[in-house]
Amino acid sequence: MSIRFEAKTSTFTLHTQHSTYQMQLDPMGHLLHLYYGRSVGDASNFDLYPAADHGFSPDYHELENVRGSYSPDVLPQEYPGANRGDFRVPAADVADAQGARGLELIYQSHSVHAGAYTLEGLPASHGDDCETLAIQMRDPVLGLGVQLLYGVYEQQDMITRAVLFTNEGSQPLTLEKAASACLDLPFGSWDLIQFHGRHAMERQMERTRLDHDTRRVGSVRGASSHHHNPFVILCEPAATEDYGSCYGVMPVYSGNHCTDVEVDFNGSTRLVTGIHPDGFRWLLNPGETFTTPQVLLCYTHEGLSDLSHHYHRFIRQSLCRGTANQTSQVLINNWEATYFHFDQDKIYDIAQKAASLGVGMMVLDDGWFGKRDTDTSGLGDWFVNTQKLQGGLAPLIQKINDLGMKFGIWIEPEMVSEDSDLYRAHPDWALTLPGRKPVLGRSQLVLDMSRPDVVDYLTDCFTKLLSENHIEYIKWDMNRNMTDVYSHALPPERQGEVFHRYIMGVYTLLDRLTTRFPHVLFEGCAGGGGRFDAGMLAYLPQIWCSDNTDAIERLSIQYGTSFGYPVSAVGAHVSACPNHQTGRTVPLGTRGVVAMSGTFGYELDLNKLSRKELSLVKRQIARYQSYAELIRTGDYYRLTNPAGADFWHGWQFAAPDGSEALMNVVVVHPQGNPRPLHIEWKGLDPNSLYKVVRAELQGVHPGLPAHDWAKAIAGQKFTGAQLMYAGQTLPQLYGDYPSVQILIRKTR
Ligand code: DGJ
Q1: Residue 610 Cα distances to 215, 330, 578, 605, 613, angstroms
Q2: What is the pLDDT of residues 105-152, one digit of tens each?
Q3: Rounded CA gap, 160 and 182, in Å?
Q4: Does residue 533 carry a catalytic annotation?
Q5: Model's pTM, two decimal places?
Q6: Is 120 assigned a catalytic role?
Q7: What is the DSSP string of 409-455?
Q8: Whose CA is nearest to atom 1 of ligand 1?
Q9: Ligand 1 pocket check for 528: Cβ under 6 Å
Q10: Among residues 217, 223, 230, 258, which one has the least CA distance to residue 91?
């Protein structure tokens, strides 16, 4: 039993393999948070919070006589409401029909059941290896029922949370804020790790010390955004990749999100995470229920790598649905090869060359539909552009299938161009403010996905596309953020619901299509990685990581992404050089090494490559396919921070049973007379013997000693202890951004 309730002390204790989470009811029925951290057993930890007078901290009316010794302002709270004596960031803020704001939750009952809970209309983790605790709370004055849900994945060290608000009274209520979880950490000082960025430079890791203020990581763009990924980490200041207390907080949500972290006057840290309160206002009529998104919490005392491994496994096993991306298939996408300028012959030429090298799927990107020769028109008109594809899609797909390749296609369901038949027919289907010209983004408008009729229309449209054509992959793009947020279908008092209803509409469409077409591999995308989050990953097992395909820039993007998200989810392609985003030239071999730490594909015109390059591509594909299982399911280790001072960047995969491992090193700042490049392996069995299966150099100038080293080291044996503790020193990798991959395997 991972969930225990001790009636004598009214204490709930949630156990995972390595962590304990504890709450306790106070005599008035408030739910206090007592502890979350390394396993400590079942005993109540209430004694951690001695009675103390905090001066201006308010008292419950019932406790007027014991002034100052028991205040909601200083005790750790499980789900605090606003305006009732706790001045820290609230988890929820509710107003009644008179506009009186105040929420105070009192315990009613609880229940425990086997298995994971589901959330209506929202993505949530699944699986039988979970136990669910539902604690029923109530504000008797508002007549508001609040159910706190906890999913405990004991073996995976993961605790999920979500909240259900039900109006059990007779007057309408308004939710001004409804977070998914609050986490009070009353002791200790913490670093905040967050992943900020911008288009083509997503998820840059930033670590800062928390101080006496409130830090906010959030998005009000209608998407989880390029700018602030919803995943954050709190860790002790001494924490490293291999050591230290770390808490991960991962909202399963793709819309406006917000995580506030406050350090209060007492030195206590509070984290509140969920839907962004700005632009949010939900009318809850009698009998209605509002469900918050889920959040995934994980604690480890073993450092950042261990935290990442937990999230990687959990997302693969218990969040993503289906098995559609569990192959070593390599795809080619025509976007950077042709942009909008292609016809069926051009696409076939690319496919033909790719097939001859071992590529398994041709993906036709933007421009195949409507009047779409630039990005200024055509979105919404999901019928084939027969000027480019004269016979339609079917004959092209057939020819590609005849090459032994699968066929995939790009769509951008949520958008509409002003210059499109769809917009001309349904101008009210776009988000626009009455009486104003809408603000544009990439010359397009956002469809109002809060409208069921729009979602139904899109369902029919893409069901038709997928039923009538042999399509085995969909790239689901979304290329602008939301402005002019107003739904022409909702009354004034519900306009604060549009952002959230929008993303619920997206989830409905995703749910319908992925359920109807389970064999189709769906890849998410939002101008690259502008919606790279656990909400999308519940439906789409992979997401295009960034529009920046420069292999050296990708190192820091993929590094940041790896803290929360598994490599199997990271869309990564080899593209042409000079690179289209940076103008930089990186050797083809090194481009391959970097893209292999993702879903691996190509995005260039292979017909423009030399014979030597084509033969390298062929070997690259074969190599990726032999490593694919290890890359996709192995434990991922970050060896350096690409933004740090090292002249090289390294990362590694190790099979969970320690049987094999793959080292990757890229020289990012080629230096004259560099210091020795010394690596220490991770995740091996110290007592086992490992053989170097192969060491492959990429981009190292010919005739240099490194090549002799690579030949000589193959077949050599080392103990796991040697490789991990003494490490290995590599020869100088001389060249423009050279790299090396070393595969080792357990031997006798
Ligand atoms: C943005 C995506 O990130 C690109 O890969 C490409 O699909 C373009 N959109 C097409 O418009």
Answers
A1: 52, 20, 15, 11, 5
A2: 999 999 999 999 999 999 999 999 999 999 999 999 999 999 999 999
A3: 12
A4: yes
A5: 0.98
A6: no
A7: EEE-TTEEESBSHHHHH-GGGB---TTSPPPPBTTEEEB-TT-HHHH
A8: 527
A9: yes
A10: 258
